[in-house]
Amino acid sequence: MFRCPLRIGFIYTGWMELLKHLKKTYVLLFITALFLCLVLTLKMPSTYKSNPKPSGPPSACSMRISEQTITPLNNTKHLLVSAYMDQRVKDFDIRIIGIFRRDSIQPLHCFFCCAGYLSETTPATILQHPDNFGFPFVTTDVMCQIPQNCSATHVTLLTTPDKQSPSNHPWLPIRNKDTVGQKEENMQFDFTICISNLFGDYNNVLQFAQTLEMYKLLGVNRVVIYNTSCGPELDRLLQSYSDEGFVEMVPWPIDKHLNPSRGWLHSEHGGDVHYFGQLTTLNECIYRSMERSRYVLLNDIDEILMPYQHKDLMSLMNTLRNQHPNTGVFLIENHTYPKKLFNQSKSGPLPQWNGVPGFDIMVHIYREEPNRNIYHPHKLIVQPRAVQQTSVHDVLKMSGAKFKVPPDVCRIIHSPISTPTNPPLDQLHVDTRLWDFKDKLLPNVIKVLQRAELLRSETQN
């Protein structure tokens, strides 16, 4: 009867020995784990131990990078617009586009940010454009050479060769770094239109919509518009186009810096600068488009560069390039279409655009023959990399040749709000080329006006 207590005692003794053994094992495991953690911690890279401080000093040119399209230059009466890599001129790397006061030009020095550190200064070469039309301010190129071993990202200009505090300088980002060696067929766009400038609360919505939709049908991919001011309805339309990526709006607050003229000649119109800085914006747009567009059209919104023997602009340019392979600038003759209503009994694409500001270019079918015995203006189709400086009606500096396109091949359909002359109908020529596109053009215009909520309900059916 004593066998059961003995067995219980034996079992109890065995469990105690087992627990002692397990305690030793757990202690050994714990010590081993602690040792391994210590070793791993000592070998762990510093980036995992804490958030490291950035290596090296912060960028020296990051204090005041200009995000404006017009930037006053310190200690001068000049304005800076943009900076571009341009190695087409010997001994220079950078072209800064600006608006300089002609009677106050002094020596300047180029100052670079080289991927985080400041360079030595290099002397600047100042090139005034020859077309100033008598105005005090003129479009100006400042040419700079990048110092050796400098990977330049930003540039500014100094009035003395001594470097000053970088916080006082407006740094301009350097664009077009990939232009050299880029192939034409790899461009993002085939055609870009440069339109300058919108001012005076311009609000011709209907003509704007018709013209932009016409250019879409002709193969234009991007329209760049420099905007000082426009009317509320046009602003809504342009915002709609901007949202879809067809229009690129560039703010152009020239009136905040100068007294811009509304005319082209200083002796007649006064002011500081020609047509709200039109010459500057045309040049800036060429460089803005240089590494992304095969062709650039320089014209106004009331002008359509219309091919007459081709279905679109690319077909036209393929023919012209094959016939004139060394040509970089094509001049298109201007033809004015006065605002004369044709007989309403004639059949024609005339929907009622109720409530839409502006006028209908589809009624402009009477073409005025230009007087070629006097100066007759042209507008331009250019290969941007062939152009260094441009004016409104001709290129000032370029490589390659120019070609005046015959008007039966391509001409400008110019539909201005008003014309200086009012010739009788028997001196005008009927031209309904725009009507060839009416089946696609008119529905597209209605669609874009509806999208911008600018068309009254009774015209939407």
Automatic annotation (TrEMBL):
Top-level enzyme category: transferase
Annotated TM spans: 26-44
Record's keyword terms, sorted: Glycosyltransferase, Membrane, Transferase, Transmembrane, Transmembrane helix
GO MF annotation list: glycosyltransferase activity
Membrane topology category: Single-pass membrane protein
Subcellular locations according to the entry: Membrane
Enzyme Commission number(s) from the entry: 2.4.1.-
InterPro entries the record matches: Glyco_transf_92
Plastid among keywords: no
Cellular compartments per GO CC: cytoplasm; membrane
Stored Pfam families: Glyco_transf_92
Record-stated family: Belongs to the glycosyltransferase 92 family.
Name the UniProt record assigns to this protein: Glycosyltransferase family 92 protein
Gene: LOC116326068
